[in-house]
Amino acid sequence: MLQLKVIRDEKKRILNGLRKRNWTAAQLKVIDQILKTDDARRATQKDLDDTLGEGNRLAKEIGALMGQGKKAEAEALKTQVATLKTKSKGLEERMDILKNQLDEMLYTVPNCPHKSVPKGKTPEDNKVAKDWTKPFPTLPDNALPHWELAKKYNLFDLELGVKLTGAGFPVYRGKGARLQRALIQFFLDEAVKAGYEEIEPPLLVNEDSARGTGQLPDKEAQMYHCTIDNLYLIPTAEVPVTNILRDEILSLKDFPVKMTAYTPCFRREAGSYGAHVRGLNRVHQFDKVEIVRAEHPNQSYKALQGMVRHVESIMRKLELPYRILLLCGGDMGFASAKTYDFEVWSAAQKRWLEVSSVSCFETFQSNRLKLRFRDENGKTELAHTLNGSAMALARIVAALLENNQTPEGIRLPKVLWKYAGFKVID
Fold first, then answer.
1. Which of 370, 364, 327, 420 has the alpha carbon at shortest distance from 110?
2. How many CA atoms lie within 13 A of 202 on its CB side?
3. How far apart are CA 143 and CA 347, in angstroms?
4. What is the rounded distance in angstroms from the CA atom of residue 28 to the CA atom of residue 273?
C-alpha cells in the first residue's frame, strides 16, 4: 500500500507511475479522492483534538470549582462537558468512517513502478535484459512434449489427478516423484548456501497475512478460501514467510533478513484455458522454493540484482536455456515496483515458459505489514521487501523432460544426479 505522505508529497511521480501501468484518467481520479478524504480526516482529527482538549480543560476547572465549594458553577460546566463528550463521540465515529474510506481507496492503488521500468501494456512490451545466445537443444525426430513423455515413462498422471481432485492437480509417481524431491532439495541447498535461513511455514494463512503481502483485496479470486475457518491456501510461500516480519521493528544490524521456504502452492488460475496450459504449463497445485528478503531502502535494488544472479546460477547449473525479462509497467504484479522474470526454453513446445519472478516491492508491503527499522538517530522507517521464485518446479520439470530427451531416455543434468539417485529416466 502506498504511503499517504508519499502520495501527498510526490503526487506527480505517483501519477506518472500509474500512467506507466496504463491507468486511465478516470482511474487516476482516485488519487485526488484519497487526498480529499485525507484532508477531511485531518480536519476532523483537529476538531476532535480541540474538543477533547476543551473537555479536559473544563474537567480541571470543575475540579477546582468543587474544591472551592462552588457547586452550582461546577454543575453548569458539567453540562458543557457532556455536550463536548457527545460531540467527541460523533467525531470519533466520523474518523473511523474516513479511515475506512481511505483504506478502501488505498487498497485499490498498485505500487508505483521504479523509474527504470519500461512503458508497455502487454508481455510483448517487456524488455529482454539477457537473451540466450547459445544453440538451443537439438531433439530427436520423434521428440515428445512433456505430457507425452510423462505417459511414456510413467512420471506423472494428470487423469489420476482429475479423479482424486480435479483438473490441474497432477499426481507424480516413480522417478517423476523422485525428480520433484530432488529439485526441491537442490533449490533449498542452493538458497541455504547463499545465506538464506530455511523456514517451514503453514500452508494456510489468515486475512491479515494475505492483506499484508498484497493478495487481498487484489487477488482473492485466485486463492482457495476455506470459508468455515476464513483461512486461505497459500498461492506462494512469500505470504507466510514475509508475514513473519509483520509488526516488527528491526535494528540496522538485522539487515539483510534472508529467508527461504519450500511449499506447495495453490492457485485457482481462473480463466486459464487453451493449448498453452497443457500438461504442467499451468496447474492449480505446484511446488516452489521461495526466497524472501527485508532490506534497508538504500540496499534493496542492489539486493534485487543479487537475487537475480542467484536464480541465474540455478538455471546455469540445470543446463537449461533461459532468458531474463524486465517487465513493463502493464505486465507487473500489483505490489511490485520492479520485476525480472526468468523464462526457460521448452524445446518440444518451441516456446518460452516463465519459471521465476524476482521483485522489489520497496515499502508497498512493509507499509501494510508495519515492518519498520530504527535508523542511526532512533527514528523508525519502513523497510523494503523483496522476493523471488528460486524456483517453481512444474515448468522446470517440463523443460528438463523435453530438452533432455534422447533415444536412450531422458538424461538429467549432472547437478541432480546425487539428489535423484539416477542419471537417466528410461
1. 364
2. 11
3. 9
4. 32
**Distance in angstroms (rounded) separating the CA atoms of residues 141 and 322:** 23
Residue 230 to residue 233: CA distance in whole angstroms: 10
Distance CA 160, CA 182 (A): 23
Report angle CA 349, 179, 396 to the nearest 5 degrees. 35
**6 C-beta neighbours (distance < 10 Å), count:** 15
Using DSSP, state whether 380 is helix, strand or coil.
Answer: strand
What is the distance between the alpha carbons of residues 307 and 318, in angstroms, rounded to a whole number? 17
Across the chain, mean pLDDT equals 95
* Rounded Cα gap, residues 266 and 264, in angstroms: 7
Q: Where do we find the cell 523509474?
A: 115
Distance from C-alpha of 98 to C-alpha of 104, rounded to nearest angstrom: 10
Does the pTM of the predicted model rise above 0.85? yes
Give every CB contact of residue 133 below 8 A, 6+ residues apart in sequence.
Answer: none
Closest CA to 158 of 408, 398, 383, 425: 398
> Which strand ranges, in their side-by-side order, compose the sheet holding 405-406?
405-406, 409-411, 424-425
Alpha-carbon distance of 332 to 283, in angstroms, equals 21
What is the C-alpha separation between 65 and 73, in angstroms, rounded?
A: 7
Query: Does 191 score more than 80 pLDDT?
Result: yes
Closest residue by Cα to residue 329 from 152, 116, 138: 116
DSSP string, 180-206: HHHHHHHHHHHHHHTTPEEE---SEE-
Dihedral angle, C-alpha 200, 204, 210, 216, nearest 10 °: 150
Contact 52, 23 (CB under 8 A): no
Give the whole-angstrom CA distance, residue 398 versus residue 348: 10
Q: Which helix (H) or strand (E) holds 301?
A: helix 300-317
Cell output for 179: 525428480
Best CA proximity match to 99, nearest among 48, 28, 29, 136: 48
Q: What confidence tens digit (pLDDT) does each residue in 291-310 have?
A: 999 999 999 999 999 999 99
Q: In what order do the strands lie in the sheet with 231-233?
A: 204-205, 231-233, 225-226
- Work out the number of other CB atoms within 10 angstroms of the CB of residue 15: 16
pLDDT per position as a tens digit, 342-365 = 999 999 999 999 999 999 999 999
Query: Alpha carbon of 191 to those of 69, 206, 285, 310: distances in Å?
Result: 76, 27, 22, 8
